[in-house]
Design the sequence.
């Protein structure tokens, strides 16, 4: 209602140069290995995210989830193997071209004194506009759309520092959306958020995935949330894929024990049927931390 | 959401945006106006001529050749050099603070200023340059400034991307280079008597030659710096954010630092090691214009120009007062004024807010 009358540039009436969502792209991680001296982080990991799919990456701290995301974004180069988005090899294209295909939202970002929401979200346009294009005055349609998508346009001129944790996370999501990429990678977007804001951010991502036909790969700590929102779970352990598949098949007591080192039970949500974990105690197994 | 509610909630946002823009435009206009004002004040503030005489000589009404010479050949280049050097230092400071994400980064603590001073002093000490030939001094100061920054670059090595490490090493390099300068001064004290004043930062005896060397250099690097406003702003958001958004942080930081080094070396070569300008002016510019570097970079240049030229006028007024009190040979260098004022401002700022990166 308000969108029809209230504002000239609304979601139902996109501004002329806001591109319509393009065809969804596939993210293909093919036998990728990566390590630092003396420490192997990822060992021949293969993972294919189909166009428009919502995949959650789960596992213990230090199992290589964040590294895998950084490799998928083309920020890190794999030692061997290949990362491609819609067939384009991420190591062979420039950083800017890569940032036009894949947006990566890190777990946290440093505070920038004085920066407003609008100014921060606008930074997402760098990949498309280039260094001199960023000097142009005014918001483009994509920036405005990104702010509206996450519902932060009302605070566009507030300093980011003045926002609460949940609001700030939405602003950072808008920054990633402003890159206008077919693939969105999120590294624990709900860390430091309370339950309400966790739910808000995940529902937002799910909604945007549908509306913008995004391909989403997300690292999540919370197995219940992952099982609830993702179509497919990929569990990493010691730099290898330990299990993958739809949540109701993957989330089992065996997964809790082997991937998370926890003895526990798995039940079902009585209304929607998604798996719910009841962790009981740390499992008495030794967890190989990957050092050689 | 009802239409009414929507309208009510969006209105403050647009208002705030308009207010912010208007405030920035106002501040920019005020600074633009302050530049000729500071220059005019600097022209009339000196000893030996009354305000009226100086103004007459400047506008061409004076018949007194000495007055005319004093205004056109001594005071005007001095004021212009002060403006140019201030603009360069203000810009360089803001670039350093943004690129290193460190609110305490400044030319004097990144090895650039002490390097430029050492370059000029060493070249003078070994007889390659002397104060009658600005070209040689400028060249050796630029070389020294680049050398100081290069030394920092080598010393930080792999920890280069860590702002804290960079800051610590910067202070160390700066201290070492200042020590070398002191050693050089002790080795050849006779040659270098006039250098001491320059080490504090002075605009005494600047000529058109200094100005002619300074302005093309400052203009070129200043323009280059302003063109990097986009990437620099992204870099200020943090390495990982910048990288994810499509920037190669190391490359941008290298380019930005090159601009900062060149600007600082140019300023130091023409007015000496002016303290605190590169540290305080960027904070003022950020407070006035906000985090949008497209506006704040030129703003910092203007603020720096006004600050140094104003400080020079104050220094001259202080010298005038000293003369009136009978200390005829005492002339206060502009560096003394900027250092005192800068330290006071910094103390004030640090007490009001905890300094944030």
Sequence:
């Amino acid at each position: 209602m308000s969108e029809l009358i209230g504002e000239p540039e609304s979601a139902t009436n996109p501004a002329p140069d806001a591109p319509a969502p393009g065809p969804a792209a596939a993210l293909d991680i093919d036998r990728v290995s990566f390590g630092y001296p003396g420490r192997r982080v990822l060992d021949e990991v293969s993972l294919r995210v189909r166009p428009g799919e919502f995949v959650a990456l789960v596992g213990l701290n230090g199992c290589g989830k964040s590294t895998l995301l950084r490799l998928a974004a083309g920020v890190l180069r794999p030692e061997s193997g290949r990362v491609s988005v819609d067939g384009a090899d991420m190591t062979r294209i420039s950083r800017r071209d890569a940032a036009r295909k894949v947006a990566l939202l890190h777990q946290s970002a440093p505070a920038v004194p004085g920066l407003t929401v609008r100014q921060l979200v606008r930074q997402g346009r760098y990949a498309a506009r280039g260094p001199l294009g960023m000097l142009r005055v005014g918001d483009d349609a994509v920036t405005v759309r990104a702010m509206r998508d996450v519902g932060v346009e009302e605070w566009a001129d507030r300093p980011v520092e003045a926002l609460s944790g949940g609001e700030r996370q939405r602003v950072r999501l808008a920054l990633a959306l402003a890159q206008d990429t077919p693939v969105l990678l999120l590294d624990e977007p709900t860390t430091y958020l309370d339950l309400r804001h966790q739910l808000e951010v995940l529902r937002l991502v799910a909604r945007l995935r549908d509306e913008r036909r995004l391909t989403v790969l997300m690292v999540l700590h919370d197995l219940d949330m992952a099982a609830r929102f993702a179509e497919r779970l990929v569990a990493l352990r010691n730099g290898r894929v330990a299990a993958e598949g739809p949540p109701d098949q993957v989330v089992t007591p065996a997964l809790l024990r082997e991937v998370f080192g926890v003895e526990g039970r798995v039940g079902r949500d009585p209304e929607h049927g998604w798996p719910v974990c009841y962790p009981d105690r740390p499992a008495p197994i030794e967890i190989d931390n990957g050092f050689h | 959401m009802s239409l009414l509610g929507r309208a009510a909630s969006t209105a403050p946002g647009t208002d705030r945006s308009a207010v912010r823009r208007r405030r920035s435009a106002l501040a920019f206009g005020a600074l633009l106006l302050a530049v000729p004002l500071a220059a005019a004040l600097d022209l009339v503030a000196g000893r030996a001529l009354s305000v009226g005489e100086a103004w007459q000589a400047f506008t061409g009404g004076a018949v007194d050749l000495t007055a005319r010479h004093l205004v056109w050949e001594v005071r005007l280049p001095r004021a212009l050099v002060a403006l140019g050097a201030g603009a360069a230092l203000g810009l360089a400071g803001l670039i350093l603070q943004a690129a290193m994400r460190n609110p305490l980064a400044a030319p004097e603590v990144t090895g650039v200023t002490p390097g430029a001073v050492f370059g000029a002093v060493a070249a003078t000490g070994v007889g390659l340059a002397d104060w009658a030939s600005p070209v040689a001094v400028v060249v050796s100061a630029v070389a020294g400034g680049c050398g100081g920054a290069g030394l920092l670059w080598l010393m930080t090595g792999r920890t280069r991307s860590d702002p804290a490490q960079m800051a610590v090493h910067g202070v160390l390099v700066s201290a070492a280079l200042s020590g070398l300068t002191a050693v050089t001064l002790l080795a050849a004290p006779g040659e270098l008597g006039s250098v001491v004043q320059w080490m504090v930062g002075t605009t005494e005896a600047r000529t058109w030659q200094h100005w002619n060397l300074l302005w093309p250099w400052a203009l070129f690097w200043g323009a280059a710096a302003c063109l990097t406003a986009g990437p620099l702003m992204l870099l200020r958001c943090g390495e990982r954010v910048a990288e994810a958004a499509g920037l190669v942080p190391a490359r941008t930081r290298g380019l930005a630092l090159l601009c900062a080094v060149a600007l600082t070396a140019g300023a130091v070569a023409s007015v000496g090691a002016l303290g605190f300008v590169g540290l305080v002016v960027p904070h003022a510019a950020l407070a006035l214009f906000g985090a949008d570097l497209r506006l704040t970079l030129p703003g910092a240049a203007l603020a720096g120009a006004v600050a140094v030229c104003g400080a020079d006028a104050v220094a001259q007024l202080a010298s005038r007062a000293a003369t009136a009190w009978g200390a005829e040979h005492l002339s206060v260098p502009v560096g003394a004024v900027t250092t005192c004022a800068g330290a006071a401002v910094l103390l004030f700022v640090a007490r009001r807010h905890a300094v944030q990166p």
